[in-house]
């Protein structure tokens, strides 16, 4: 049992919380702009610039949270970092390739000649799709303990596809908030199409995670845990139902000019991701590699963690501050892109 009164006991918990917060913020923030990138292929040419404009001030900064989360994993938990990244080498490489492709396409599409612009739009879509699917693939492989038999690989592929749907749901919710007119109405349709495939992914992870470990199964299905934890799945199901009903009514509300509830699909989806994240974090804790490496085994020396904590105390508020400032400055409906 680790002594939580000593730095070697409580510091790994602090860094686990910081890393978890960073990754959750990344999934929600970069998730919606990856979703917008995937949805770009379904949009009319007239709407593509508005979609890009809606994420333009934010998308690059959103990826900072991924850098922070992986950086904390590397510096605070180097043993786990080596074990995880070694097992996920290929999907990580695919994710980075996707992020590079979409980054290049984002900058080049606005300066390209008219006949080249569709190719850069396709590149932005392909990069977004590749990055989103790779992240889901990594999550599926991580949950199953990096087992590469055909059943576990099939599960990872399903999680990858469902995470793409989840990001599309976030992206569509973002567009419902940030746009108006025909594009906003199409975003409502895209959100409905993505909603229940996202639900399949949440359900698949919820079913499979307790099956990979008896320890996880006992944490969820022993008394009184099963009663105390019931709000997590119940709230999640309720949110899916609420979002579905609202999306069915929103076209009629849109026709009447009622935009009052346009924030609900995005906010509700963000809470669904929060619930899923909390459930997964509870299942895996205190391990970083399921039932193999816990946070205390993986942690750096307390002296090193102390130095890293000072840096994190400066970097994390800075990133959070400029993120909030950027969203405050560029809040409101997106308009067409203009370059001078």
Structure description:
There is one protein chain. The protein is globular and about 60 Å long. It has helices at 7-39, 45-55, 59-62, 64-76, 78-87, 89-109, 117-143, 150-178, 181-211, 214-221, 225-228, 231-255, 264-284, 295-298, 302-329, and strands at residues 287-289, 293-294. The chain has one domain. It is mainly α. A two-stranded antiparallel sheet has the order 1-2. The chain is built from 15 helices and 2 strands.
Task: Please provide a brief summary of the model.
The protein has helices spanning 7-39, 45-55, 59-62, 64-76, 78-87, 89-109, 117-143, 150-178, 181-211, 214-221, 225-228, 231-255, 264-284, 295-298, 302-329; strands at residues 287-289, 293-294. A hairpin with a 3-residue loop joins strand 1 and strand 2 (293-294). The chain has a two-stranded antiparallel ribbon with strand order 1-2.
Uncertain runs: none
Discrete helix count: 15
C-alpha Rg (nearest Å): 21 Å
Helix content: over 70%
Strand content: under 5%
Helix and strand sequence: HHHHHHHHHHHHHEEHH
The best one-word shape is globular
What does the main sheet amount to? 2 strands, antiparallel
Membrane topology: Multi-pass membrane protein
Transmembrane segments: 12-32, 90-110, 122-143, 155-175, 195-217, 223-243, 263-285, 305-327
Family: Belongs to the cytochrome ubiquinol oxidase subunit 2 family.
Protein name: Cytochrome d ubiquinol oxidase subunit II
């Amino acid at each position: 049992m680790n002594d939580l009164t000593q730095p070697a006991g409580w510091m790994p918990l602090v860094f686990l919380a910081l890393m978890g917060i960073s990754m959750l913020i990344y999934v929600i923030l970069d998730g919606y702009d990856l979703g917008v990138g995937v949805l770009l292929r379904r949009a009319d040419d007239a709407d593509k610039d508005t979609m890009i404009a809606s994420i333009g001030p934010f998308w690059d900064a959103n990826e900072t949270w991924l850098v922070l989360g992986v950086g904390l994993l590397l510096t605070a938990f180097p043993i786990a970092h080596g074990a995880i990244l070694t097992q996920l080498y290929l999907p990580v490489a695919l994710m980075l390739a996707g992020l590079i492709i979409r980054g290049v396409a984002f900058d080049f599409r606005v300066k390209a000649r008219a006949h080249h612009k569709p190719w850069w739009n396709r590149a932005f879509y392909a990069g977004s799709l590749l990055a989103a699917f790779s992240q889901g693939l990594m999550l599926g492989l991580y949950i199953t303990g990096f087992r590469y038999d055909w059943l576990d690989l099939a599960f990872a592929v399903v999680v990858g596809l469902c995470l793409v749907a989840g990001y599309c749901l976030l992206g569509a919710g973002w567009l419902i908030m940030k746009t108006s007119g025909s594009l906003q109405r199409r975003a409502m349709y895209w959100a409905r199409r993505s909603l229940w495939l996202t639900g399949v992914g949440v359900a698949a992870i919820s079913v499979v995670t307790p099956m990979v470990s008896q320890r996880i199964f006992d944490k969820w299905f022993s008394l009184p845990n099963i009663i105390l934890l019931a709000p997590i799945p119940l709230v999640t199901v309720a949110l899916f139902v609420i979002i579905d009903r609202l999306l069915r009514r929103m076209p009629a509300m849109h026709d009447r000019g009622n935009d009052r509830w346009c924030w609900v699909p995005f906010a509700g989806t963000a809470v669904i991701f929060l619930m899923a994240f909390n459930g997964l974090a509870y299942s895996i804790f205190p391990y970083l590699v399921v039932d193999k490496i816990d946070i205390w085994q993986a942690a750096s020396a307390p002296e090193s963690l102390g130095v890293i904590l000072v840096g994190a105390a400066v970097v994390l508020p800075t990133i959070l501050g400029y993120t909030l400032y950027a969203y405050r400055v560029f809040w409101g409906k997106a308009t067409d892109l203009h370059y001078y």
